[in-house]
Amino acid sequence: MPIKYVDFYEVNYTAERLRGCKLWGAYVAIYAPSPNPMHRVNLLHKRRVSADHQFATEADAKAEAGEVAVKLVERRRRRYVFHP
User: Fold this and answer.
1) Dihedral of the CA atoms 44, 46, 49, 51 (nearest 10)?
2) Per-residue pLDDT of the chain (84 residues; tens, 9 = 90+)
3) Which of 61, 78, 81 is nearest to 13 (CA)?
C-alpha cells in the first residue's frame, strides 16, 4: 500500500479491483500521529474515493487516489488546527 506523508498526516492510498468486473477503484485512508508511538489515530477509515468513476488500470486508480488524498488533507488542514 503506497504511503504519503503530508505534514503530520500519514495518507495510505491504493487501488483495488472491483467485484464482478475488470475495472479498478481508488481507496484512501488518513492517519494522524498519536502520543503513543505504537499507535496512530485513524482520521478517515479506508473508503473509496471518486466512487462514480471506475478505472481501467491499477496505475490510474492509484494516481487518482493519491491526488484525492492530498486534497482531503488540505481540506482537513483548513478546517482543523493540529498541534503535535
Assistant:
1) -130
2) 678 888 888 899 999 999 999 999 999 999 988 888 788 889 889 999 988 889 999 999 999 998 998 888 888 777 766 555
3) 61
